Amino acid sequence: MSLSLPAIIVQGAESLLSMAEGILQDAKISQGKDAVFEFPDTAYHLPMIYALTGLAVQTVGDMEVALGKANDLVAGIRERRGAEPSLGDALEAGLAAHFGVELILALRGLCGQEPVHDQGSGISYHGFLSDTMQRTLGVKLVDGTIPGVAVILGAAPDDGTAVRIVRELQENRIFVLLAGSGISEQLKRAGVDFGLESRIVPLGPEPIHALYAVNWAVRAALIFGGKKAGDMPEHLAYQRERVNAFVIALGAPTPEILAVGAGAIVLGYPVISDQNVPTLEAKGICPNEALVGVPDHAKIAQRAVEVRGLKITVSKPPIPVPYGPAFEGERVRKENTFAEFGGQRSAAFEWVRTLPAEEIEHNRVTVVGTDWQQRYQKGGVLPLAIVVDVAGRKMQPDFEGVIERKIHTNINEAHGIWHMGQRDIIWIRISSEAKQAGFELEHIGVIQTAAILHKFGQIVDKVQVTLYVDDADVLRFREEARRSYLERDRRLGSLTDESVDDFYSCLLCQSFAPSHVCVISPERLGLCGAFNWLDAKAAFEIDPTGGNQPIQKGELLDERVGRYSGVDDYLKKASGGAVETLNMYTLMENPMTSCGCFECIVGIVPEANGVLIVHRGHAGMTPAGMKFSTLAASVGGGVQTPGFMGVGVNFITSKKFIAGDGGLRRVVWMPAELKTRIRDAFNKRAADEGMPDLLDRIADETICEEPDQLVEFLTSVNHPALEMEPLL
Ligand code: SF4
Ligand code: ZN
């Protein structure tokens, strides 16, 4: 007699749990019960188990407790149902299977067997996905740049099919995670680039490595959503409603894979199989089907996107190379370069200017230069001016810079074209591969017209691009452009919180952190660093009902801390009552909430009467006694955390940076990398404050990582914070 699907799933879960049991017993002997294990760069222990059960697993002994709970769950099903479990039982067993797999991976990690580098195929599997990675991708997940995450298990029938499925997902801007050596090796053989930048990440050589995707996704609720560990119903609901993940399972599944798939369904991630499986619905869990069979590989990616219910708008400019965010991070190496522009090798710049509508021939791209066609065909180094002319009834000169800053992404999204810098310090490379595919010089302009109309169609009615490749032209127009950059900078410098009537909100992160609102003022950008006041203003013009809304400042209630009546009124509504009042310029009382994708955390160091700033990506300890990941876990989730807040890097050098607490003079510690990154702007601000050498009096990890030594250092350099009014 053949077993029913639920019975096979329960069997698969049992088999995974007994595998975990075996490894656990070995680890108890080889490592001892008190051996400690933690995944790299997470504040959430074994995240799946922690989120859903509240168990903070740290030692092998804790793992035994967790495994006991998972075993009880499955044993309970067996007791109730014997050999005939229901579909509901099977889903429950699926969750237990996930706990089992998380334990297996943790135990292997403890024994140094994870992540895997496979000598044979040359693939370095990524293994566990860090908190930092989720915070870094945060904005892209909320603003629709990455509409969803696909986890592919198994192997396609052949390399070509594997590539087609993944390319189609990429063109839909889906983030692709691979579990299993089959699919990973197929793509590797076909020359597909792996990495976070290219948004294709091989997690591990076995299908169970899909758990790294799950215990990554489950952290969204802890990082952004402010959900408490152990509140299982809330966590499940959060995943189902907010996390756009789905599974593509290729090849015939084993009972273990079926069990992992069932666990995915409980979290609301539909499973799309290439086998002839019966369609399953799970009302209240998955928006459409929970399990669907699509034996035609040409249709599987598209169908997966539909089943997950993703609405994706893609705009591909008419160019002969693939286009999309998946290619944004790729580099073009010197030996692959066909032609390049700028980068100190030639004069090059980019410039957006507003012209009267009648002076623009809509959608026209022109290349101007002596024998430019022959010169381009030869390749090598060329000068380049990219002059973009725009006109529109709702266009404002303030938006020129906003549109211009997108040129970078617009170009980088083309496969085989690379762009760096901005304004008159750009550097562009066209790869030999792109040239072979038919990429011509004018395509640089074609990309701009298409992308600008797609992104700014509400404010730009007409756009034309002229590319100049003769030195004389480039230098002449560069002078004009430089005058315009200066003018813009002057205007930006004059934009202060006092000089405008409206601030702007950003509500994008509410899709993950429902009560979080960024209040963006001229002197304070969004904490993710991606939106400043002008960006928000332009975004509001583009989509008046979108995620950026004007906030009338109203009355200034407290000048020192930056409290405005209009901001408070707005926040009460926009945060669903979670935030009553906000002080823009202090972190000590009612500071800005943090969602989770902040570039830096500012936190008090009471011993030093000052604050430290640590950026995302700094892995070491801080004098607050916590690493970035632990600090971050305590400030996120859309709540106000006095003494701590998330900020964008550029806010540090704003006049308004914790102005109510004494400003820059309060900063006592920053990682060296951050110091280097902001050095010029910091020194300028510090000089304005009469302390030109302040940065040298700020400690970093090369000086100390704990408070006693910090105070010693600060005393030795006579740091101003020591003399300031007590922070607490
Ligand atoms: Fe999220 Fe704030 Fe950035 Fe908007 S500005 S995307 S709300 S972090
Ligand atoms: Zn955010």
C-alpha geometry: globular
Low-confidence stretches: none
Q: Helical content, roughly?
A: 25-40%
Number of domains: 4
List ligands, each type once: iron/sulfur cluster, zinc ion
H/I helix tally: 23
**How would you sum up the major sheet?**
7 strands, mixed
Q: Please name the fourth-level CATH homologous superfamily of the largest domain.
A: Bifunctional carbon monoxide dehydrogenase/acetyl-coa synthase(codh/acs), Chain M, domain 5
Going by helix content, strand content and strand pairing, the class is alpha/beta
The number of strands is 26
Taking the alpha carbons of the first and last residues, their distance comes to 72 Å
CATH architecture classification of the largest domain: 3-Layer(aba) Sandwich
CATH class of the largest domain: Alpha Beta
Integer average pLDDT: 94
* Percentage of residues in strands: 15-25%
Tell me the radius of gyration.
27 Å
Spatial order of strands in the largest sheet:
5-4-3-6-7-9-8
CATH topology of the largest domain: Bifunctional carbon monoxide dehydrogenase/acetyl-coa synthase(codh/acs), Chain M, domain 5
